[in-house]
Amino acid sequence: MDAPTNKPFVVAIDGPAGAGKSTAAKKLAARLGYAFLDTGAIYRSLALVARQRGLDWADADALAGLARGLDIAFVPKGELNAVVVGGQDVSLDIRTPEMSDGASRVSAHGPVRAALLGLQRRLALATSGGIVAEGRDMGTVVFPDAAAKFFLTASPEERARRRAEELVSSGRVVDRAAVLRDIVERDQRDTTRAAAPLRRADDAIEIDSGGLTPEQVVEKMAEIIRARGG
């Protein structure tokens, strides 16, 4: 008889750019005492390393090769998870509009997503207790058997407003109309790509975060997770 395996309680959070996935996922993980898997940071990191090595974001085969050997770790630093690639903290380097765009472009390639699928699952299984995983195909592809699935959404205008405020708070000059265009264009790429397009899993609970605080979003999710034994 095979020895029993202790699988983590997986919470999958998907949704479009700017819907508040990362903020909600971090707060939810902290509240529950779960690990946090920031899959968006993985794709951003891949885009960053590709740019540093002079690789074209359109070169699927080269990117897939890079993805298979990506040395990435999430290191707790206080309330934050530092993103460390090749021993270097790239937490700030990957949070630029350029790397946001890069993440969307490299993630559109099927070979890249296939190369990173195993990495994401290994990171999850290496945790004890539970894990909150956020991205765009967590509930549909990466963790189809997740114990709880959520799909966060908000109008493009609301998501653009939030993204613009984030950029302003970091000291950047912002063209708000351009931010909205970027959001709409990214939605188009993410929902129409051939590989794992963004969509709500059939058994995911949709939450419109427009008009809600991050704390209210987290409370809604926590109630459901508690009811499911998480």
Describe what this molecule looks like in 3D.
By secondary structure, the protein is α/β, with parallel strands linked by helices. The chain is built from nine helices and eight strands. The strands form two sheets. Strands 2-6-1-7-8 form a five-stranded parallel beta sheet, with helices on both faces. It has a three-stranded antiparallel beta sheet with strand order 3-4-5, covered by helices on one side. The longest helix has 17 residues, at 176-192. The two termini are 27 Å apart. The model has no long low-confidence stretch (mean pLDDT 90).
Contiguous runs where pLDDT drops below 50 for at least 5 residues: none
Rg, nearest Å: 17 Å
DSSP, total strands: 8
Category by helix and strand content: alpha/beta
Distance between the termini: 27 Å
Number of contiguous helices: 9
Give the H and E element order. Answer: EHEHHEEEHHEHEHHEH
Strand content: 15-25%
Share in helix: 40-55%
Strand order of the largest sheet: 2-6-1-7-8
Q: Please outline the major beta sheet.
A: 5 strands, parallel
Shape: globular
Q: Mean pLDDT, rounded to whole units? A: 90
Write the layout of secondary structure elements.
Layout: E1 9-14, H1 21-32, E2 35-38, H2 39-52, H3 60-68, E3 72-77, E4 80-85, E5 88-89, H4 97-106, H5 110-125, E6 130-135, H6 138-142, E7 148-153, H7 156-169, H8 176-192, E8 205-208, H9 214-227
Parallel strand pairs: 1-6, 1-7, 2-6, 7-8
Antiparallel strand pairs: 3-4, 4-5
